[in-house]
Write a structure and sequence with these properties.
By secondary structure, the chain is an alpha/beta fold. The protein has two domains: 10-68 and 352-447, Aspartate Aminotransferase, domain 1 (Alpha-Beta Complex); 76-350, Type I PLP-dependent aspartate aminotransferase-like (Major domain) (Aspartate Aminotransferase, domain 2). It is built from 16 helices and 15 strands. The chain has helices at residues 10-15, 30-35, 61-64, 73-85, 97-109, 123-140, 161-166, 193-196, 211-219, 246-257, 278-282, 309-318, 335-350, 353-369, 400-411, 433-447; strands at 40-44, 47-50, 55-58, 114-120, 148-152, 184-187, 225-230, 260-264, 288-291, 303-308, 377-383, 386-391, 414-415, 417-419, 422-425. It has a seven-stranded mixed β-sheet with strand order 4-10-9-8-7-5-6, with helices on both faces. The protein has a four-stranded mixed β-sheet with strand order 1-2-3-13. β2 (47-50) and β3 form a beta hairpin. The protein starts with 9 loop residues before the first helix and ends with a helix.
């Protein structure tokens, strides 16, 4: 079929839809979706347009990624111009200016000392790259016994074999059991409903959950542990916010035992928490952090590992002449992605979107916690421009109530996410207060309808 034109009417859009049969959709109930599809055909700023011509307020920044809003003119213009100038350049033994410039500009946003950038194409690739860099680092340092990784229960680190091994969402692993990385342990998650329900911001109780890492160093010789990887705020599992002192304690234990600390900032990066990265929000600097999503405002796929200079130097300086790290991707630092990334970072700077998100955090928190007392709501969580509404599960049908709420909100013109029995909201950073009001008024109305 020809490309969908923005000039088509809703009736035209419906008539031009292709067959749904051939596409195998990711993380989707394919049979159910194809019986009642929800098709998006256009987007601008805070809204999607559906194939039947309805406007859908984007309460999730797409998939946690469209931080500056949809179809921003400066970003699309940069992609268009670059496509006509240099469509592709091999990243092995060759380079192009924009990849170097994007790395330089990104380093200016990162915590001091984290200034070496390795580009990939997604968060999943970034995580697997970070794990490989950790192993290469310890080989270069003369400690090849450090091969064990520590993740966390309910953690999400993408869908590569490394990412699902260190990740802690069981549903993502059970179909692939027996084929994951062998030397992996998991810390407990930090969600403590009994102690911390309805907390605004960071829970006061729960730093002790980090002590499980100290226990693991006693179970395994700490000189065998390569790295710990955690999301500063666990997003896909239902927005689990780190208790006060928790990340600091993880960093302290890693330092004491010489273990690398990796922050997965694919969701928390680029202003989501009102700071460039969660590392700055919480004042805890990792040895590596992974990014994706907001780096290009989701316009062109891109991911990256951002490493401390010492990590880069150890690997590069210890290697013999020639290739120092036998790893990379055909599309690492792709010219179109680099152009999109540079335009995105400039848009964040020009519109001061990170500070804008910080200025809305209190208003957002009030809106989230105004839902307390509504049917089925057993917890509310917020930090930055992220909110979670945890619902009591239906007996014998975990996740069903949240999924029905997601569907009804979409019918009412609002996009939210459901994960398990939690609803998650994370709008573009350009959101207005009136749009925040509308989001939570819609959720409130729907929750009163859901059984």
């Amino acid at each position: 079929m020809p490309p969908i034109s923005a000039d088509l009417t809703p009736a035209d859009l419906t008539a031009t839809l292709p067959s749904l049969d051939e596409l195998w959709m990711p993380f989707t109930a394919n049979r159910a979706f194809k019986r009642a599809p929800r098709i998006l055909v256009a987007a601008k700023d805070m809204y999607y347009t559906t194939s039947d011509g309805r406007q859908i307020l984007d309460g999730t920044a797409g998939l946690w990624c469209v931080n500056a809003g949809h179809c921003r003119d400066s970003i699309t213009a940069a992609i268009r111009e670059q496509a006509g100038l240099l469509d592709y350049a091999p990243p092995f033994q060759l380079g192009h200016p924009l990849a170097f410039e994007l790395a330089s500009q990104l380093a200016k946003l990162l915590p001091k000392g984290v200034d070496r950038i390795f580009f990939g194409n997604s968060g999943s690739e970034a995580v697997d790259t970070a794990l490989k860099i950790a192993l290469a680092y310890w080989q270069a340092k003369g400690e090849p016994r450090r091969v064990r990784f520590v993740g966390r229960a309910r953690g999400y680190h993408g869908v590569g074999f490394g990412g699902i091994a260190v990740g802690g969402i069981e549903a993502n692993r059970k179909q692939f059991a027996g084929q994951l990385l062998p030397a992996v342990d998991h810390l407990p998650h930090t969600h403590d409903l009994a102690a911390n329900a309805f907390t605004r911001g960071q829970p006061k109780t729960g730093a002790h959950f980090a002590d499980a890492l100290e226990t693991l160093t006693k179970t395994h010789d700490p000189s065998t542990i390569a790295a710990v990887i955690v999301e500063p705020v666990a997003g896909s599992t239902g927005v689990l916010i780190p208790p006060v002192g928790y990340l600091e304690r993880i960093r302290e234990i890693c330092d004491r035992h010489g273990i690398l600390l990796i922050f997965d900032e694919v969701i928390t990066g680029f202003g989501r928490l009102g700071a460039p990265f969660a590392a700055q929000k919480f004042g805890v600097v990792p040895d590596m952090l992974t990014v994706a999503k907001g780096i290009t405002n989701a316009t062109v796929p891109m991911g990256a590992v951002c490493a401390r200079r010492e990590v880069y130097d150890a690997i590069v300086d210890a290697a013999a002449n020639g290739i120092e790290l036998f790893h990379g991707y055909t599309y690492s630092g792709h010219p179109l992605a680099a152009a999109a990334g540079l335009a995105t970072l400039e848009l964040y700077r020009r519109e001061d979107l990170f500070a804008r998100a910080a200025s809305l955090e209190s208003y957002w928190a009030d809106a989230v916690h105004a839902l307390r007392g509504l049917p089925h709501v057993i917890d509310l969580r917020n930090i930055g421009l992220v909110g979670a509404i945890e619902l009591e599960p239906r007996p014998g049908a975990p996740g069903a109530r949240a999924y029905e709420t997601f569907l009804k909100c979409f019918e009412a013109g609002l996009m939210i996410r459901s994960t398990g029995d939690t609803l998650a909201l994370s709008p573009p950073l350009i959101v207005e207060r009136a749009q925040i009001d509308r989001m939570f008024e819609t959720v409130s109305a729907v929750l009163k309808q859901v059984a």
